Amino acid sequence: MEESGHKRPVLVDDGSLILYYNQYSYYCQKVVWALLEKDIKFNKYEVDVVNDEQFSEWFLELNPRGELPVLQNGLLVVAGSTRILDYLEENFPEAKSLALPRDVEKKIQLFKSTIDNLPIGVITIGSFLHPKTVVSPKSPFVQPVRYTILERDETISNRLLAYAEKFPAFSDVLERKAEFHDRKREVLATEQYYCTLLERLDDFMGELELHLAKVNVEHSWIVGRDITLVDIGLGCLLYRLYVLGLEDRFWANGKMSELAKYFEKIMATNSFQNTLPTKTSLLKTIWLNTPSTYKAGIAAFSFSSMIIGSTLLKR
Fold this sequence. Notes:
By secondary structure, the chain is mainly α.
């Protein structure tokens, strides 16, 4: 187990919200995008998940589950993207609202509920375990990084149990988390399960395609002319599928043309672009997460070759 010697960060207290996040997290991206859309002032602290800072004692005091994102407003702590997004809507009435209209049709409510409940972690790790399902993974999920993530995923249960022993106050939560992870890995090891999950996602994408065809993507979002939480969820979902290399399955190469136009519209949005890591950050992440056995080969090529296919990313 890697030593978790992280100390509580000393942050400037200027009255702003503090967001504890990771720049490659789907759930964190949703919150960052919402904060930017709502023009709410906040400070970011990137938690070092590679070295298990999310399981350090100071962070477990914020969120005993050791999960991101976490929003702090003075003494108030809100954990989890869904709770944070609800909190922002309820407590910042002067900011732009992203909530669905009260009279929105049930189909749109179902879209949002489905997106909110998708097992993004399962979709992500499953694409690493079953590479035949993907075509061209993008940065940062290139092959060497995927290898490292899988290695860490295999050991997380043991690490969680070690942290449970080290920090007894959080042992129950961490032990349950370790048990859940073991069950999830056992299910994910079956390619048939993962393919079934993707097939269900196929059906959902088909429903979205039909809806987008009716609303005219060029002039409207999911619900009218303003971005709402359903757009934030769907936009981040499509981006995650894109970097995993799953876009060919769902909308690329002439499939689901409305969904493809919607994704292009998302990528052209300034607030969304500002949620993305810079290319410099991507290169650093790739290098730090590349096993030494790969680095000798990578050194023979320019770093730019590591970001082929990421032309849509923020510079």
